[in-house]
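Sharing a chain and its predicted structure for anyone who wants a worked example. Both blocks are below, sequence first, tokens second.
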Amino acid sequence: MIGSIIGWLIVGAIAGWIAEKIMGRDDSLLMNIVIGILGAVIGGWLFGLLFGTPGTGGWIGSIIVAVIGAVILLAIVNAVRGRPVR
């Protein structure tokens, strides 16, 4: 259980950081973790709808799915706040 929580935090931090760089933002580590974890949920849901599976498997696949979801999340947040989407 502790290992899976730490795994979520690591994947969330990496995915959130990559997504913030793609979207041209500068967020804190805590915000990157939150964005990455929410991105993983969104990405997993989208991959489930599109491909019938919530991800590609493994650490790298999880990070890719989470980054895609996090970028979508940040694009939606930027659009709601009236900021240009990159």
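Comments welcome. Residues 74 and 80 are 10 Å apart (CA to CA).
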